[in-house]
Each structure stands twice: as C-alpha cells, then as structure tokens.
Specification:
The complex is a heterodimer of chains A (125) and B (113). With 125 residues, chain A is an alpha+beta fold. Chain A is 38% helix and 26% strand. In chain B, 42% of the residues lie in helices and 33% in strands. Chain B has a five-stranded mixed beta sheet, sandwiched between helices. Classes of the chains: A alpha+beta (125), B alpha/beta (113). At the A-B interface, helix 2, helix 3 and helix 4 of A face helix 2 and helix 3 of B.
Chain lengths: 125, 113
Amino acid sequence: MREFVHNVLQEIEISSELSNLIILAVDEACTNVIIHGNNSNPKALLKLEIQHIKNQLTIKVMDTGEYTPKSTKFDKNIVQNCIDNRSKGGLGLYIMHKVMDKVEFLSEEKLNFCLLSKKIPPSII
Amino acid sequence: MKLTHEIIDKIFVIRISGEVDANSSLELDKYVRDAILKGYSAILVNCKYLEYISSAGLGVFISYIDELQNKKGAFSFCALRTNVFDVFKLLGLSKLVHIAENEQESIDFLKRI
C-alpha cells in the first residue's frame, strides 16, 4: 500500500517530505480500517483511491467493515494522554489530522469512506 | 523489520532496521517489554537503519515513557533519518524524549540520568 501511494505521489510535484507524511497518513487510515473496522480479517477488502485535481489531493479509503471511530476529532492532548495512561490508541487519527487539511468519515449503504484531503501548492518553477 | 540488541554499561541498546508499522510493532513491543522486565530502564534506540515508522511503532515507545521515568530511566533515540525525525516532530516527541546524533551521545546522556 505504501509503495502504491508513493508511486502515485511521484507523479505529482511535491516535496519528498510532504510525500512521506501523506504516505504515513494513508497508512494510518488503512491500519485503522483493517484493525478496527474489519478485526484484521484477511478476507476483508479495502479500496484505496487517489485523485489529484486542480491542486487538491483527495484520498479515499473504502471498506465494508463495522468501523465506527469513537471519535473523529483532533485531540491535541492525545500524545500526553498516551504517556500518562501508558497506552497507544488514537495516535493514528492524530497523525491523519496533523498531515491532512481535512479528515472525514462517512457511511453510505454499507460502505465506509475515510476521506483525506490536502491542498497541494503549485510547484515553483 | 529486524531487531538486535546489545548491553553497554547497563544500557539496553536496541538497533532497528527496516520498517515499523502496525504489523511489526507487536514484535517491537515485546522486545521493549522484555528489556524492562529484565530490569533495564535506560534504553537506547539506534534508528540508523530504521526506514519508516508509523504511530503503532512510536506508540510502543510512548506507552513506556512513564514507566521508565518512574524507574528513573529514559529512552534515547539516535541517528534518526529525516523522514523518521519528521514523524517524531509531528507527534511532538522531539520535545518529550532525548534525541542524539549518534550512539555515543545517547550513551553519554543515559549514563548521566
């Protein structure tokens, strides 16, 4: 999956720094879908779609699992909470929000969508 | 992902190579857990050959920070590649854990705590 996203992003003129962070955000989204939405079921399917139209990058992660995020909001205290509680949960969502401009979760007729959007600035020539 | 370790002056030195994601983080967690259970509270993580780490991997370290601090210990990470350091920065970890250029710097820090 990471390689797929990397190859797609290579066709867009963005810095390797931003590309690496977007790959990470997508990895986090997919991991949540696989582990929490589909109980790591190896037979479950996930669809990943990447669109780049007019400087807007939109990444769609789709599945048919049961994932309902406890919270989809950005929690600025999550890292300290994890330290204090000796836990690991919620860091993926935090990263998604930090990297992308918008993170949305939708469900429509048994299909779940995680939409990650990022405005990609035009490259400087 | 590949993990190796060495003991240097009572410091548990972990060397990670490859990628740490949700899948491989389970093994990393067990590695760190075992080190702490053996009594090590000064843990050096050499990231020279660490190519990628996700929240699952960093979550392993984050979840043990408090325990190490209670034992008067700490983590020290060294030789981070740029993309890995960027993830540390994203999570604000660069302000919460010790980060060094190289293993010797990490050893010197951990010996002083």
